[in-house]
């Protein structure tokens, strides 16, 4: 199974700053089949990015994804107050599907 | 509007059985897969398994094979996750989610069902 490692575990930033989150895979993710999800306290995760770089329906363009192979990045260009949350990457290039451990973006 | 509505929170004792549900609406239930995801308290997301309600084809993550049973009743657009004998370590939030295939993104999620197992 593919192991996903997210870094950093916690990112402390101020509103308006740029956030860069990383997701590393233990082996190449087939087809760049990687997604990013946002989870706020007490709520279910929400799909942000799929196929490494495509935004899901209704997701603001301040969210962008990039990468291929074993290295992927989620960038939030300018943090809004509602963006402080936990973010997970997930690969679906091979079975079983696997998730990263998450990155918490907190207010500095 | 696509919706997945899960059954309510449960409090059970070790050794008891449990079946939780996930009802889909706003789309053709038999044309998409339903997956289940576990989130233990304060922890990350874990993939459990998946079912295709159209023909009940079911796949399990190796970590959960034999520990839970996933099923579906397409006549009422509902998928299920069940345990025959709960353990304290099954205490977690469980989410269902919709997928287009066995290896695709999870595009819509249920609100989650909290299962607490305590003596």
Please name the defining characteristics of this protein.
heterodimer, A: 108 residues, 7-stranded mixed beta sheet, 4-stranded antiparallel beta sheet, B: 119 residues, mainly beta, 0% helix
Count of alpha and pi helical runs of chain B: 0
Q: Please write the string of helix (H) and strand (E) elements of chain B.
A: EEEEEEEEEEE
Distance between the termini of chain A: 36 Å
Shape of chain A: globular
Low-confidence stretches of chain B: none
Helix content of chain A: under 10%
**Percentage of helical residues of chain B?**
under 10%
What is the beta-strand fraction of chain B? over 45%
Can you tell me about this structure?
The complex is a heterodimer of chains A (about 110) and B (about 120). By secondary structure, chain A is an all-beta fold. Chain A contains no helices and 11 strands. In chain A, strands 2, 4, 5, 6, 9, 10 and 11 form a 7-stranded mixed beta sheet that branches. Chain A has a 4-stranded antiparallel beta sheet with strand order 1-3-8-7, with no helix packed on it. In chain A, strand 4 (about 35-40) and strand 5 (about 45-50) form a beta hairpin. Chain B is an all-beta fold and about 120 residues long. Chain B is about 0% helix and about 50% strand. Chain B is built from no helices and 11 strands. Chain B has strands at about 5, 10, 20-25, 35-40, 45-50, 55-60, 70-75, 80-85, 90-100, 105-110, 115. In chain B, strand 7 and strand 8 form a beta hairpin. The interface between A and B is medium-sized, with 25 and 22 residues.
């Amino acid at each position: 199974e593919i192991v996903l490692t997210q870094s950093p575990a916690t990112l402390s930033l101020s509103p308006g700053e740029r956030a860069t989150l990383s997701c590393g895979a233990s082996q190449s993710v087939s087809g760049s089949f990687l997604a990013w999800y946002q989870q706020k306290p007490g709520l279910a995760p929400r799909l942000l990015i799929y196929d490494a770089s495509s935004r899901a329906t209704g997701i603001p363009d301040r969210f962008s994804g990039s990468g291929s192979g074993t290295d992927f990045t989620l960038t939030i260009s300018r943090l809004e107050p509602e963006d402080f949350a936990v973010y997970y990457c997930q690969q679906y290039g091979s079975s079983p599907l696997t998730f990263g451990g998450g990155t918490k973006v907190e207010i500095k | 509007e696509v919706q997945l509505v899960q059954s309510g929170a449960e409090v059970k004792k070790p050794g008891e059985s449990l079946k939780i549900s996930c009802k889909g609406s706003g789309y053709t239930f038999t044309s998409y897969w339903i997956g289940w995801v576990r989130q233990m308290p304060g922890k990350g997301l874990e993939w459990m398994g998946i079912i295709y309600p159209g023909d009940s084809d079911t796949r399990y993550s190796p970590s959960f094979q034999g520990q839970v049973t996933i099923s579906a009743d397409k006549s009422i657009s509902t998928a299920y996750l069940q345990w025959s004998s709960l353990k304290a370590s099954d205490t977690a939030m469980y989410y269902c989610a919709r997928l287009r295939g066995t290896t695709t993104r999870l595009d819509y999620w249920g609100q989650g069902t909290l299962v607490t197992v305590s003596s």
